[in-house]
Sequence to fold (462 residues):
Amino acid sequence: MSIWELANPRRFMALSGRILPGLSWAAGLSIGIALVWGFFFTPDDYQQGSTVKILFIHVPTAFIAINAWLMMLVASLIWLIRRHHVSALAARAAAPVGAVMTVAALMTGAIWGQPMWGTWWEWDPRLTSFLILFIFYLGYIALWQAVEDPDKAADLTSVLCLVGSVFALLSRYAVLFWNQGLHQGASLSIKQEDNVADVFFYPLVLSITGFVLLFVALVLLRTRTEIRLRRVRALMLREAR
Amino acid sequence: MTGARALLGRELRLAIRSGGGAGLGLAFFLILVLLVPFGVGPSGTVLSAIAPGMLWIGALLACLLSLDRLFQADFEDGTLDILMMSRLPLEALVAIKAIAHWLTTGLPLLIAAPVLGATLHLPDAAQPWLVASLALGTPALSFIGAMGAALTLGIRRGGLLLSLLVLPLYVPTLIFGAATVSAAATGGDPLAALTFLTAITLASIAILPFAAAATLRLQLS
Fold:
């Protein structure tokens, strides 16, 4: 089956309806296991004590916060190029999820930062970039809500997503110029030696997997809602005539 | 070319005459700078420390002030439709509108900035860099703003949304603009930040008219 067949809302509804329950269970189970594993069956860090365990929420939410925007970018491009409505609706559906994940990452970071850095908030490049990302999400959501015609709203938000991506990336590097940070380097990377220790690594990977599944499930769910809203709208327009 | 010149002349005349609000941005800039000492106290050391940032934020907000009318008035009375039918490419139209916006908001700020900088105790050494950074940076504000104005065209109370969309896009410009001035004020090397600032401006001028024109086409289709 080609992925483009999902552009047909009926096919999309059928397939997403079938996989959604399993996906939700998988997400719940992996997050549950990862958090229990991470919170109770990993040692305390020798410097950070048990505060290090917020990592198992902080890193996955931050990961989703960035990748949700990437997914929106791809979906927006698909809408602009191939005009598949499901794609535009998926981008719309992902935005609030991404925004919430951004807030979650910022808040878990603040809770960890208070005992560790001695401050809830520091104007560190990573923290600041995330705040900027959050504002991009807000603007994107606000533009969706402000434009009444659904197709035009999809067009405009897609353009905003493209332009916003360029500027978000630019801001990411501009803030490095503005302030050198406190935040540690990446917890996960291709280079093995930069990673967190193995004992934290496996529950972290499981937790990230769980959050990715959760994200996909939420986006599918919200896209289904959007499609149904469209149908209701079409029915109501037909009634009004 | 005559079309472009005529359009630029029209934009400037509209801005200067009949309450077009060309001076309004400047007055806003002045008030903002006046308010700063009330907010943070009259201490010279504090003022001179925050002067680069305040002047740049003032320029940002003053630019934002007149943005929502950039296409809106022409959109409402149908001029925009006629302009789109002319032989002038839409990209050029956007660029001319942005240039006119800069000439009526950015340029006056540039001239007023040294005076206001002096009232905020900006060190003399930083004054030329303030002017240079505004001269090379504020065109980006107008071009980015034109993009935002195209996106929010026809939205009721679009002004508020416009600021939410455009201000985050101004972040890199603000960072490099203010960094240029504060580097000069504290005896650092302002050239690095100024170079980045110029790069952003040039890229904005080169790319954003196309994005804004595409947006206008979507809006009016």
Notes: Chain A has a mean pLDDT of 88. The helical segments of chain A are 9-40, 55-82, 85-116, 125-146, 150-178, 198-240. The two ends of chain A are 39 Å apart (CA to CA). The CA atoms of residues 55 and 204 of chain A lie 8 Å apart.
